[in-house]
User: Fold this.
Amino acid sequence: MNRGTDQKVNRRDFLKRLGYASALALGACGLGLALYDPRGPAPLDQTKALTGLGDFTAKNLAPGQAKMAIVQGTDRTVMFEQGLKALGGMTSFIQEGDRVLIKVNAAFASPPSLGATTHPEVLAAVARACFNAGAAQVLVTDNPINDPDSCFAITGLAAAAHHTGARIIMPAASLFSPVSLPGGKLIQNWPVLVGAFPGVTKVIVVSPVKDHQRANASMTLKNLYGFLGGRRNVFHQDINGIITELSQLLRPTLCVLDGTVSMITNGPTGGSLADLKETGTMVLSTDPVAADALGVELLGRTLADVPYLAMAQAAGAGQADYRLLKPVRLNTTI
Amino acid sequence: MRLVTVRRFSQVFFLLLFLWFCITATVGPFFWQLRGWPINWLLELSPLTALATVLSTGTLFAGLAWALVTIVLTLLVGRFFCGFVCPLGAIHQFAGWLARWGRTQAFRVEANRHRRLQAVKYYLLAFLLALALMGSVQTGLLDPLPLLHRSINLTLAPIADKGLRVMSEGPRYYASAWLIGAVFLAAVALNLVLPRFFCRFVCPLGALFGLMSRFSPWRLGKTSNQCGDCRLCEEYCEGACRPSGRIIHSECVLCFNCLDRCPAGRITFAGQPSAAGEAGLPDLSRRGFVVAGTGLLVASMWELGGLSGANHNPGLIRPPGALDENRFLARCLRCGQCMRVCPANIIQPALLEAGVQGLWAPVINYRLGRSGCQLNCIACGQVCPTAALRPLSLEEKLGLGEYAAQGPVRLGTAFVDRSRCLPWALDRPCLVCHEMCPVSPKAIFTRTVYEPIREGRDLSARVLSQGVDLYAPLPPGINLASGDYFLRVHGQPEADFRRILGISGNRLTLAKPLAVVGRQVFYGAKVDIMVRLLRPYVDAARCIGCGMCEHECPVSGLRAIRVYSENESRSRAGRLIV
Assistant:
C-alpha cells in the first residue's frame, strides 16, 4: 500500500519534472531560433552615419549687405565690434532664441600670448555679441590635440566663456558619431563631434592665423579639423583633400579670422614670441574661403601655396578671390 | 563620549578626508580641485615612509616631517594611528565586522585569538627596512597608505568616475590596473578569514608602530590579575592582542572595544602596565629572520641585472623631474599620486618595465594617454610626496630664466622609425609629428624630396597647353589632385615640377604648363608622376622627449616615431649627443 502511494507521488513528480524540462527545452529552442544568425557578423560594426553637420549660413541677409569686413587695428574687441557693425551688426546673423555654437581653435594647452589658439578676447567679444543679439544659448567647443581640460583652461577660453555666460562643450567620447560625407573620400563612417550640435541653429568659427608646414596655413577651414574624432591624423596624408571635405562638412554662419597677431613660423604650435608677427588684421566673413584667402596674405604666402583654397572653391564652399566679395575695409587705429 | 565612539568618528573622518583628497587631486579651475589641498598629508603621516627614505637617502624630505607627529603620538600612547586614523584600517575593520555579522560570541572570540603568525609583519618590516638601507624603497608596496592611494586612485575611482565625470572629463586609463585592484581586493577579502587580517599579519607600518609603542607610558591593560576566564574583552578585539591575559602590547591597535566589554570593569587605558603582565612583542623566531634575510639576499641580486645601468630599458621614460634610476628607486613609494594627477593620463604604473624593483613606479606611456607630456604642466613633480620626481618649476622644466644655460628638462629623445613612417616607408605625405612638436624652434625638421610614384615613371602622354593627357592607366589608391603630386618630363632631372591640380578622365590639369621647348602641343612625351614628401628628422639637440609626436603619430600600432630614454636629463649615463 505504501508502495502504491509512493508510486503515485512519483508519477506526479515525474510528470511535473517532465513539464518543467519540456518548458525549458521549448524555451531554449525558441530563444535559439529567435537569435539564429545563418550569415555571421558584418566585417565592420555597422552604424548609421549622418551625411554632414548642416548648413548654418544666414538666410535672408539684406540685399547689398556686405559679407566681408577687413579690419585693421590692435584691439581685438574693437576690431570685432567695428567689423560686425560693417556687416549690419550681429542681428543680421543671430536672431532671438538662436542657439549658437562657437568653434574655437583650442588645439594646444598653450597660453593666449603664444597665439597657437583662438584668443579669449575674441571669443568673449563674439559670445557677448551673440547674447546681445538675443541668442538663447552660446556653446563653445573643440576637440583639441592636448588634454581638453588643460587646453580650455590654459588658453583662457574657459574663463572667457565663463565670464560671458557661454558654455563649453567638452569633447566627450559619447558626443562623437559617424558621418559619411556624400561624395567624400576621406570622411566616410568617421567619428565627428555631432553631439555638440543638437538644437544648434547658428555656427560661428573663430580662428587664429597660423603657419602650418603640411597645409602651409591653418586658419578657418583647417580649424574645422577640430570637429573630427578618432585617429584623424591619418588624413594628413591628403591634407588638402581633408580640408576640402571639411569645407563641405558644415557651412558656418560667420567666420572670424583673427590676424591681429599671426604665427609666421614654427606653426601650428609656435611656442615662442619669436614665432609671432603683428599683422594687425581681423576678418569677418560669411565665406570661409574668402576669409582664409586673406589670411594667406597675412602669412606672406600666395594662393598657390595653399591648394586647398582653390579646391574648396571648386567644391562650392566659397570664393578664393575675396576681392569679388567687395569687402568693407576699416581701420580702427585712426 | 565613550572612547569607542570617538574612535568611530575619527575613522569615518579620516576615511572621508582620504576620499576628499582623491577628488581634489584633479588639475582644474575649481575650488575642489588641485589648489593647495594637502592631498599628500595622509601619505606623509606614515613613519614607515619617513624611516625608509631616511635610510635610503639620509634626509627627511619636506612634508615627510609630518611623520614626526605620528611618531611622537605613537611613542606616547601606542598604535593610535591603526585604530583612529588609518583609512585602510577602517575599511578592514568594517569589512571584518560585516563578515562576522550574526555570528556567535564564541566564534568571534576565537577569530580574535592571538596567533603566532602575527610575527610575520615584523619580518616583513625588517626585510623592507634593510632593503631601504640598501637603497631600494619597497615599503610602499605594503604600506597601507600608498597601497590605498594607489588602489583607489588608479582602479576603483576611474571605474566609479566613468559615469560621474568628476575626476576627469574623459575616461582614465591605467596599465595593469587589474593587478593593483586585485591586490587591494584580496587584502580586503582576507577579512573573511580573520578580521583585520592585513593589519595583524602583513602591515609593515603596523609592525613599526608596534615597535614604537614599546615604551608608551599610556597603555591598555588590566587593573587586576584576578579574572574569570570569560574572554568577552576579546569578542571585538581588533588587534588580536590578548587583553584577557598577558597582553601583547605591540599588537594593540587602540580600538578600545575591550574597555566597556569587561563585565568586571578591569580593563583600563592608563599610565601603568597591565597587572596581568605584558609582552612587548609577539614571539619572534629566528626562522622568520632567516627567511627575511634570504629575501634580502635575493633582492641584492637585482643589481646584477644592470637595469639601472648598462642593461636599462630604453623604452623606460620616467616623468619630468625624475631622479636617475638608483636615486629614484630610493624614494618612489608607488603611491600613484603622479599618475592620478597627470592631466594627460600618460603616467602609468610600471609592471616589469623597470624590473621587479620598479613595480608600479611611474613610467610614461605615450600611447595610452590623452597627449604627450604637456609643456606647461608640472603637476607630477609638485605632488610627489618624496621628491622621487623633483618639484620642478615651470622655468626649470622649460629651461627659462636662470635655467637657460642647462636647457629644458628632457625625458628622452624621439627617433623616427623609417621602416614605418609614412613619408619614409610608404611614400605618403604626412608630417603630423612635425606639426605636433611643441618646441620652438621645432625639434623635428624636414627635408623635401620628390620621388616618382610606383607605376608613375616614363609614362606616355600628350602635352597640352594647360595639362597633360596620360596614355597610361592612373595608379590606383592615390588622389593625384591632392596637391602633393607633380609631373615632370621624364629624363630631365633638373626640369621643374608641375603641381597636378585636377583630374578629369585621363586628363591632368597642371598649375603651369609643362616646359617642352617650342611646342604648344606635344604628342609622344614621356612624363614622371612625382610625389612631394617632407620627411621628418629629429634634431636631438632640441628634442625634449615630450612624446607629442609619438602620441599623435597616425601609425597607430607601433608608432613610427617613438621616444627612447637616450639623452634624458635625469641620467648622465644616458647622454647621447656631445
Notes: Residues 410 and 569 of chain B are 5 Å apart (CA to CA). Chain B touches chain A through 49 residues (CB under 8 Å). Chain B is about 30% helix and 15% strand. The longest helix of chain B spans residues 3-24.
